[in-house]
């Protein structure tokens, strides 16, 4: 059992005993003084803008691998987990907003029992194009094991040298929108999270082009401010 699994189990047990003590079901919290062990750093795999552009543009020689690449693109466009990908149906999960835009609303399968929250996000043109390519209603069905296995082939063909799995699409989705300037709260809504903290800690990383863009904007603001002071003087 690895450190991350142990940390997750201990954290869950501490939550249970703490709530039981607060409700008076037990006299005291027996794990109150127990310090949750730290997990090992998790390898954060996300596609850069350049890699995502390459994925979208590349034409795979194998129809099977092209299908897997299309599924990854769809997950990058929607932020879906594997289970949302497999459950998604246009007829059930797409609606028209008051402003006339096509939107997706689908319950996160991971928390559907404990804390059901929908993922609400625009139905992008590219995501719709992927759906239309496969009949207009849903994406292809495939086992998680096969999906992750074939994603390794996608990685090898594109020479990304990354551990591509079904989770990469969701992390790429959240990270892209963060770096494009969307608020963490809106990204949390699209991902179906109860808190933007979860989204930020697990799914988002600031990429270099966001840092560069913000630095250029800061320089421009400094220049504009300095120019304004000179004019006033």
Automatic annotation (TrEMBL):
<dbReference type="GO" id="GO:0006310">
    <property type="term" value="P:DNA recombination"/>
</dbReference>
<dbReference type="InterPro" id="IPR011010">
    <property type="entry name" value="DNA_brk_join_enz"/>
</dbReference>
<dbReference type="GO" id="GO:0015074">
    <property type="term" value="P:DNA integration"/>
</dbReference>
<dbReference type="InterPro" id="IPR013762">
    <property type="entry name" value="Integrase-like_cat_sf"/>
</dbReference>
<dbReference type="Pfam" id="PF00589">
    <property type="entry name" value="Phage_integrase"/>
</dbReference>
<feature type="domain" description="Tyr recombinase">
    <location>
        <begin position="42"/>
        <end position="217"/>
    </location>
</feature>
<dbReference type="InterPro" id="IPR002104">
    <property type="entry name" value="Integrase_catalytic"/>
</dbReference>
<keyword id="KW-0233">DNA recombination</keyword>
<protein>
    <submittedName>
        <fullName>Tyrosine-type recombinase/integrase</fullName>
    </submittedName>
</protein>
<dbReference type="GO" id="GO:0003677">
    <property type="term" value="F:DNA binding"/>
</dbReference>
């Amino acid at each position: 059992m690895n450190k991350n699994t142990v940390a997750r189990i201990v954290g869950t047990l501490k939550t249970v005993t703490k709530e039981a003590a607060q409700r008076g079901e037990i006299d005291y919290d027996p794990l109150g003084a127990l310090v949750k062990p730290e997990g090992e750093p998790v390898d954060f795999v996300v596609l850069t803008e350049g890699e995502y552009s390459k994925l979208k543009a590349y034409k795979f020689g194998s129809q099977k691998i092209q299908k897997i690449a299309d599924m990854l693109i769809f997950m990058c466009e929607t932020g879906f987990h594997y289970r949302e990908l497999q459950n998604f149906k246009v007829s059930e999960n797409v609606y028209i907003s008051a402003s006339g835009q096509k939107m997706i609303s689908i319950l996160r399968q991971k928390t559907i029992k404990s804390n059901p929250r929908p993922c609400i996000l625009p139905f992008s043109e590219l995501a719709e194009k992927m759906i239309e390519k496969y009949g207009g209603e849903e994406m292809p069905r495939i086992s998680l094991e096969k999906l992750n296995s074939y994603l390794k082939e996608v990685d090898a063909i594109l020479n990304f040298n990354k551990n591509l799995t079904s989770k990469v699409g969701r992390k790429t989705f959240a990270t892209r929108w963060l770096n494009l300037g969307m608020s963490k709260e809106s990204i949390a809504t699209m991902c179906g999270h109860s808190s933007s903290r979860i989204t930020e800690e697990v799914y988002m990383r600031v990429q270099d082009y966001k840092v560069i863009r913000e630095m250029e904007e800061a320089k421009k603001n400094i220049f504009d401010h300095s120019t304004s002071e000179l004019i006033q003087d």
